[in-house]
Design brief:
With 478 residues, this protein is α+β, with helices and mostly antiparallel strands. 44% of the residues lie in helices and 19% in strands. Among the domains are: 41-92 and 111-224, no CATH class; 371-476, Immunoglobulin-like (Sandwich), CATH 2.60.40. It has 19 helices and 16 strands. The chain starts with a helix and ends with a strand.
Length: 478
């Protein structure tokens, strides 16, 4: 032990004002972000994606396909309708394929252009954009909104707040209603809402999704992207130096500083950045892109749009803030060189695998047998010897019609000498219906030795192409 060091240590008493409770008060609270309105190429693309995604989300449940809703995930009867497709729980492999496609698409988009999904198509971004538009229409632009929030509560301020939150709640409730409309036929759901006759689960999910929309897009906004979304944390593992990201040209922009439009930059020893801070004011997550790439950046390009506007006003070339790559900035590459390097081996591998999986699923769906069957040996009825000395086993076969037309099916069996079905082996099923069929199967007693024997049921459709072969066991008792 070093006694010399210990002897020189001073004990500083902690006063009540410096206790843990007061220490926490010294942390800077989260500041409210008031994004400034901006126009430009990337802003236009964001609004295009807002319109496209919301037209699909709100409009798709109202589209009809034949005599039913075009897209409906009917959990009650365990059938998923996607336009002409009818999927059952047995088609879980297709859901797995869709999840794999989504993951690979995310990897591909991230490798090419960073958080492209976050900036343009993520529901959090889309609904925040819509809620901000409503807010700006009612509360005014950034300056007016900040000034009003800092002032006392007045009748005008209260009216604007109530109107804004009322519209937010209305949109959030419509969003929750639409979401539930993908699981309960939306016209039926609308009638239940009008009659105040919603089921418990419909009420729960409508309120839950409405509240989530209102809370996330109205209040939490950038906090979701910063602290709740896991993508922000592992995105760096998916980037490389050839990934297109929103980038500030430090070499061209620094040193930054204000100046008149007619000033000579060489005389002032200044870069192209006029230090207007507009890139910070338009950022939906409140970061300064001039400090380099940060995990909070969602790649929306708002800073690039506003910077181009400023460059136009002061007469400088555009592109001080732009989509580029680290290698392109360091090597001063042209746009053609940058784009060429984007299509590197990593991206080509992602694309090849993604296209292969999409084609495999598409071919599988095209060649898919339009009906399904499950065979279950009836364990409640033991193998038995019946009249004429024959051995009988009882089975139950579930036949599911995956088409939207009435179908007839014929069931036969093979695998043992003299095996035959002794009950009705013809089945007629209405569109998208399923039925359990009991079957009595008999074999001559002298045909096989005692024990378990493999047999196969053949289910054939008489009205459309399709044939299934299902395995089971036939038991011959001692």
């Amino acid at each position: 032990m070093n006694t010399e060091n210990n002897s020189t240590k001073k004990v500083i008493p902690i006063t009540p004002a410096e206790s843990d409770g007061d220490t926490m008060a010294h942390y800077e609270p989260a500041k409210t972000i008031y994004p400034r309105s901006v126009t430009g190429v990337f802003t236009n693309w964001r609004w295009i994606m807002v319109w496209v995604t919301q037209l699909i989300f709100y409009g798709l449940p109202w589209v009809e396909w034949g005599q039913r809703q075009a897209v409906l995930f009917d959990l009650g009867v365990r059938r998923f309708y996607i336009f002409g497709l009818v999927l059952y729980p047995q088609d879980f492999i297709y859901l797995t394929g869709m999840l794999i496609i989504s993951a690979l698409s995310l990897f591909l988009f991230t490798a090419v252009a960073g958080r492209l999904w976050c900036g343009y198509a993520c529901p959090q971004t889309v609904y925040t954009e819509i809620f901000l538009w409503i807010e700006k229409k009612i509360e005014g632009d950034r300056t007016a909104h900040m000034r009003r929030d800092a002032g006392p509560m007045t009748a005008d301020k209260l009216r604007r707040k109530v109107s804004k939150h009322g519209l937010w709640l209305l949109l959030a409730c419509w969003t929750g209603f639409t979401f539930v409309g993908y699981f309960t036929p939306i016209k039926v759901l609308a009638a239940e809402v009008m009659a105040l006759d919603l089921g418990a689960w419909e009420i729960f999910w409508t309120i839950f999704y409405s509240f989530a929309t209102y809370l996330n897009a109205g209040y939490m906004r950038e906090m979701v992207c910063k602290h709740m979304c896991p993508y922000a944390r592992f995105q760096s593992a998916m980037f490389d130096k050839d990934t297109l990201i929103v980038t500030y040209d430090t070499e061209r922009g620094e040193p930054r500083g204000a100046r008149s439009k007619k000033a000579d930059l060489s005389t002032l020893n200044l870069g192209a950045c006029v230090d207007c801070s507009l890139c910070v004011q338009v950022c939906p997550t409140g970061i300064d892109i001039r400090n380099g790439l940060q995990y909070e950046c969602i790649g929306c390009g708002a800073c690039a749009d506003v910077c181009d506007t400023v460059m136009d006003k002061v007469g400088y070339p555009r592109g001080l803030v732009k989509y580029s790559t680290q290698n392109a900035m360091q090597g001063h590459w042209s746009k053609e060189q940058t784009v060429k390097r984007v299509f590197r081996p990593r991206v080509l591998i992602y694309t090849t695998v993604l296209v292969g999986i999409v084609l495999a699923i598409a071919i599988s769906l095209a060649m898919r047998t339009p009906f399904k069957a499950d065979v279950v040996r009836d364990r409640g009825v033991m193998a038995r010897v019946v009249e004429d000395g024959k051995v009988e086993n009882v089975y139950s076969i579930q036949v599911m019609n995956a088409t939207e037309a009435t179908q007839r099916y014929k069931i036969s069996v093979e695998g043992l000498r003299g095996i035959q079905i002794m009950s009705d082996n013809m089945v007629t099923l209405e569109p998208t219906k399923a039925r359990w069929i009991p079957l009595r199967v008999q074999v001559p007693a002298e045909a096989e030795e005692h024990g378990s024997h493999e047999i196969h049921f053949i289910i054939e459709s008489l009205d459309s192409p399709g044939r299934l072969r299902e395995e089971s066991k036939f038991i011959v008792p001692r």
